[in-house]
Write a structure and sequence with these properties.
By secondary structure, the chain is α/β, with parallel strands linked by helices. The protein has three domains: 5-97, no CATH class; 104-235, Rossmann fold (3-Layer(aba) Sandwich); 242-354, 3-Layer(aba) Sandwich (Rossmann fold), CATH 3.40.50. The chain is built from 18 helices and eight strands. The protein has helices at residues 5-13, 24-29, 36-48, 55-58, 69-73, 80-93, 104-122, 145-155, 173-177, 181-194, 206-218, 230-235, 266-274, 298-301, 303-313, 315-319, 330-336, 346-354; strands at residues 132-137, 162-163, 198-203, 226-229, 247-252, 276-281, 324-327, 342-345. β1, α8 and β2 (162-163) form a beta-alpha-beta unit. The mean pLDDT is 97.
């Protein structure tokens, strides 16, 4: 178990920056105020200081993707990302939140509802029951994956899989990362209510899967359904995938919230290997994998840094002469589709491989 928040802030404040080499944001921005130790020290100072605080002082709190790389190297296992998300909540409550996140709750809600409508349009009503043993929740960044997932499930003998009929297609992670804790709790309560009729919920988004597995409980929201990410569900069918065709070569990118946060490294590789002639590995993979730059709402608060992180991740891909990256995260897919490289979701890869 990591230390409590106050202990974590104190440990980080007086640490000689032993994890500074791990932070993708501080590498991209080359600012001392953005190394993990400095961000945690800033949060501690803001919490202890009396009197006025301002938006500029709070800015370092938003320079984090929540990737967890610093936690991986921390001797105390301090979870810097979740701590800084709490700091963002305190900043929002104090009227010193990041300007780029003004009206974020409304923007998030509109995006999530739009994704829900897209899912309903692309999937037949009979595959969207309000009760089922297993239901798929695609996420707000990948509504188009729902029919592909259903088709894939039909071909592997899992015709019983439905698509979750909910008011929102998202688990709510963006609200948490933006420091909108009250809105996150309300969203979690509503989604938990919508999911009451399902025994298992398969989540397409790693960050929302993590949030639903760990943060719903932390926020006092009971969730009846068992939650798992897509790769956890599909891994049970890896040996009976009816592969019809394979792609030649592709790199596999470990999403931070799938790997470091949930320990899911082998499952996506087993699945991807079935549909590829050769699975290429980044030199930094698994627990040491670099971030794609998409987490922690960084593309909104520090877009230039987010782009620099994405570009750096793709250097190896280009040097190897490979044009495809496979991942299991819609956000990573979006961030890594650039400069002649195409990122594809693992479900897309498998659906294409089993199609006649």
């Amino acid at each position: 178990m990591p230390p409590d928040l106050e202990t974590s802030l104190s440990y980080c404040t007086y640490c000689p920056k032993l994890c500074r080499h791990t932070c993708p944001v501080s590498h991209a921005e080359a600012r001392e105020t953005l190394v993990p130790q400095a961000k945690m020290a800033t949060m501690r100072r803001l919490r202890l200081r009396e009197g006025e605080r301002n938006v500029v002082e709070s800015e370092p709190l938003y320079g984090c993707t929540g990737c967890g790389a610093c936690t991986e190297f921390c001797l105390h296992g301090i979870e810097v990302g979740p701590a800084l998300f709490r700091g963002r909540d305190e900043a929002e409550r104090g009227g010193r939140g990041h300007p780029a996140l003004a009206g974020f709750v409304e923007r998030f809600s509109a995006k999530s509802r739009k994704a829900t409508e897209e899912v309903r349009f692309s999937t037949p009503a009979e595959r969207r029951p309000i009760e089922a043993q297993v239901a798929f929740l695609p996420g707000c960044d990948a509504p188009a994956i729902a029919p592909l997932m259903l088709d894939l499930c039909d071909r592997i003998g899992a015709e019983y899989v439905a698509v979750a009929e909910t008011r929102h297609a998202c688990g709510g992670y963006p609200l948490l990362a933006a420091g909108q804790f009250d809105a996150f709790r309300l969203h979690a309560e509503r989604l938990a209510e919508d999911l009451r009729g399902y025994a298992r919920v398969v989540i397409g988004c790693p960050s929302c899967a993590w949030a639903m597995k760990t943060q719903y409980r932390a926020f006092g929201v009971p969730l009846r359904a068992a939650v798992e990410h897509t790769v956890e569900f599909l891994d049970a069918f890896a040996e009976r995938l009816p592969i019809q065709r394979k792609r030649p070569r592709a790199f596999y990118h470990d999403p931070c919230y799938l790997g470091r946060h949930q320990g899911l490294y082998d499952q996506p590789r087993r699945l991807a290997n079935k549909a590829l002639d050769k699975l290429e590995e980044f030199s930094r993979n698994r627990g040491e994998a670099e971030c794609s730059g998409g987490g922690g709402v960084l593309p909104l608060t520090m877009p230039a840094a987010a782009d620099a992180i994405s570009d750096h991740r793709l250097i190896e891909v280009k040097e190897a002469g490979v044009d495809t990256v496979v991942t299991a995260c819609a956000t990573c897919k979006r961030r890594l589709t650039r400069d002649g490289v195409t990122a594809i979701d693992l479900v897309e890869l498998l659906a294409g491989a089993v199609a006649p």
